[in-house]
C-alpha cells in the first residue's frame, strides 16, 4: 500500500492532540527478515493479523511499518488496558508524546508526493535506569521538534523496563536527514552524547541504540481511537 489517504494519516497522528496519550498501552513487535521478498511476505502476514485483531475489537488502532532497507517489519497497536491483549508480551507504555499538526504532503522537485518517514530508535536499558534515559530524551526533544518537517514523537518503555523505543515521524527522509546538519541539533545531541557514552560504560544503556527507518504499509483505526502521532 504505497499511498495512504489523508484520513489515514490523521488517524495515525491524532493521539498527539490529547495529554491522555501518556500512559497508553501499546503492543509493538519488530520482525527481522532477510531480504525484500521475505519482507513482503512478513508485511502481508502482519497486515492480515492486524486486520483480524482490529475486526475482533482486540485493539483500538494499529499500523504496520516496512523497513526502508528491506530488513525489518514492525507491527504496533494501541491496546485497551482492560482487555485480554493487555497481558501479553511485547507491551509498552507511552512515557512521552508530542505532536505537531500534520503539514500538507511534501513534494519532490518534480512535484511528486514524497512518502513520510517513520523511525524507531531502540534502546536497551539496564535495571533501574529508566528515569535517566527519559531525562536525557526530554533534554534533546525541544531542539528536534522545531526542525522543518518534524511531525511527531512517542517514547515507549517496555513493561519490564528493559527496552525503550523512540517512535518518530518526519514529513520525508530529506527532512529527517537535514536535522543532522543543524548545529543546534548536533549541539543538543552532543550534550546528551557524553552522558550517554558514560551511561553505556556505567550500565545505564547496555549497548548503543539501534536506529531503523520505515515507511507506512498499513493502518487501522479512527481519529477517536488511534495509535501514534
From TrEMBL:
Q: Does the keyword Oxidoreductase apply?
A: yes
Q: Which InterPro entries match?
A: Dimeric_a/b-barrel (IPR011008)
UniProt GO molecular function:
monooxygenase activity
Q: Which UniProt keywords apply?
A: Monooxygenase, Oxidoreductase
Superkingdom of the source species: Bacteria
Name of protein:
Antibiotic biosynthesis monooxygenase
UniProt source species: Paenibacillus lignilyticus
Amino acid at each position: 500500500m504505497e499511498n495512504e489517504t489523508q484520513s489515514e494519516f490523521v488517524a495515525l497522528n491524532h493521539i498527539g492532540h490529547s495529554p491522555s496519550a501518556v500512559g497508553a498501552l501499546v503492543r509493538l513487535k519488530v520482525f527481522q527478515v532477510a531480504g525484500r521478498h521475505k519482507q513482503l511476505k512478513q508485511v502481508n502476514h502482519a497486515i492480515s493479523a492486524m486486520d483480524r485483531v482490529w475486526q475482533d475489537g482486540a485493539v483500538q488502532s494499529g499500523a504496520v511499518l516496512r523497513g526502508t532497507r528491506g530488513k525489518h517489519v514492525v507491527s504496533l497497536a494501541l491496546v485497551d488496558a482492560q482487555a485480554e491483549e493487555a497481558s501479553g508480551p511485547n507491551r509498552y507504555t507511552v512515557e512521552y508524546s508530542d505532536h505537531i499538526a500534520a503539514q500538507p504532503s511534501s513534494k519532490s522537485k518534480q512535484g511528486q508526493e514524497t512518502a513520510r518517514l517513520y523511525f524507531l530508535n531502540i534502546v536497551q536499558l539496564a535495571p533501574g535506569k529508566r528515569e535517566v534515559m527519559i531525562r536525557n530524551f526530554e533534554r534533546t526533544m525541544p531542539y528536534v521538534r522545531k526542525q522543518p518537517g518534524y511531525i511527531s514523537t512517542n517514547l515507549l518503555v517496555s513493561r519490564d523496563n528493559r527496552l525503550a523505543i523512540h517512535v518518530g515521524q518526519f514529513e520525508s527522509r530529506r527532512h529527517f536527514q537535514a536535522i543532522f546538519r543543524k548545529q543546534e541539533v548536533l549541539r543538543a545531541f552532543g550534550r546528551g552524547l557524553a552522558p550517554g557514552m558514560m551511561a553505556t560504560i556505567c550500565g545505564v544503556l547496555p549497548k548503543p541504540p539501534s536506529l531503523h527507518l520505515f515507511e507506512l504499509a498499513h493502518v487501522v483505526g479512527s481519529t477517536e481511537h488511534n495509535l501514534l502521532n
